Amino acid sequence: MPDATTATINAIAEKLGASEPSAAAPDPVTFVIFGGGGDLAHRKLLPALYNLQIDGLLPPRVAIVGCGRGEMTDEAYRAFAKDGVEHFSRRPIDPQIWETFAAALFYVSASIGDDRGLAPLGARLDIIEHERGLDGNRVYYLAIPPTLFGPTVKELAQRRFVDRSRERPFARVIVEKPIGRDLDSAGAINDAIAAVFAERQIYRIDHYLGKETVQNILVLRFANSIFEPLFNHRHVDHVQITVAEEEGVGTRAGYYDQAGALRDMVQNHMLQLLALVAMEPPRSLQADVIRDAKLEMIRSLRPIAGDTVATCTVRAQYAPGYVLGAPVPGYRQEQGVAQESRTETFVALKVFVDDWRWAGVPFFLRTGKRLPKRASEISVHLPPSGRFAASPTKASRSASPPKFPARAAASIRCRWTSTTAARSAARRPKPTNASCST
Question: Is CB count within 10 Å lower at the N or C end of the chain?
Answer without folding.
Answer: N
